[in-house]
Amino acid sequence: ITKKQKKFIRKWLNDFAKDQGHGFLAREEINALATLVKGHPRPVEEYINRKLMNFAINPSSGGLAMTGSQMPSARTEIPSQSRYSLTEANSHLPQETLRLVDKYVRGYQRQRTRNDGRRTVNNGPYKCTYACGYRTKRAFDWRRHEETHEPQELWLCHFCNAKGEQNPFLVNRKDKFLKHAKDVHKQYEPETVLDMSKVDFHANFDPKCPMCPELSSSWDERCKHILQHYDDDDNSSRSRRLGRGGRVMRARRVRRNSSIMG
Ligand SMILES: [Zn+2]
Ligand SMILES: [Zn+2]
Ligand SMILES: [Zn+2]
């Protein structure tokens, strides 16, 4: 089953559930969906079962039923964000590093919340999934913003730390770390300082997509998946304006990543 087919299936199921107000899928509908993606019903059904947790087999009908996100799935344990404990997940780190990391991540998340709502320039198709109101026109900025809510990579300056400084330089952005290395540790190659300072940090991430039943297996996959939704939405609002048909595909290629005006 190809990426393109998967994307189509996700979108189709989403629309289906929205239109029908329920997630029941009859056998004929799975077959129809398979025909639409020019695939066999079996892998389509398997994909839905494996990846889209809210759709499950309904044995009485031989079809699939959407079970609702609040219902626990018997088949797969859904990792829950609330169950994540930074200190437990990172107990392999030296105690002092762990203390600094914990303080940093908590402080960072608090700071973000305090600054929410202060932004004046907020537009573009890419919206923050942590509901702070941030939006942007650039996918790159969007991802970087998401990582302010949930830091994924950390660098704790090896040299500042070795000197026993009380607050050694610790940051979740590579560009900021490289700047620190260049400014403060001029005698070393910045990239070398970067490599020496990378924390083996086990970050938190919520595998559940906020927009569909898809589960991602990594932060990277999650971000790419969510961006796909925004691009799809962007294109479908554009296609409503342009009318359906071939022009949409052309517009999509040409105007990808540009803002929607009007
Ligand atoms: Zn945000
Ligand atoms: Zn340093
Ligand atoms: Zn999704």
TrEMBL record:
Alphabetical list of InterPro entries matching this protein: Znf_C2H2_type (IPR013087)
GO molecular function terms attached to this record: zinc ion binding
UniProt key word ATP-binding: no
PROSITE patterns named among the record's database cross-references: ZINC_FINGER_C2H2_2 (PS50157)
SMART domains in UniProt: ZnF_C2H2
Keyword set, alphabetical order: Metal-binding, Zinc, Zinc-finger
Superkingdom to which the source organism belongs: Eukaryota
Domain C2H2-type: 126-154
Classification via PANTHER family: C2H2-TYPE DOMAIN-CONTAINING PROTEIN-RELATED, FINGER DOMAIN PROTEIN, PUTATIVE (AFU_ORTHOLOGUE AFUA_8G04300)-RELATED
Entry protein name: C2H2-type domain-containing protein
Organism per entry: Zopfia rhizophila CBS 207.26
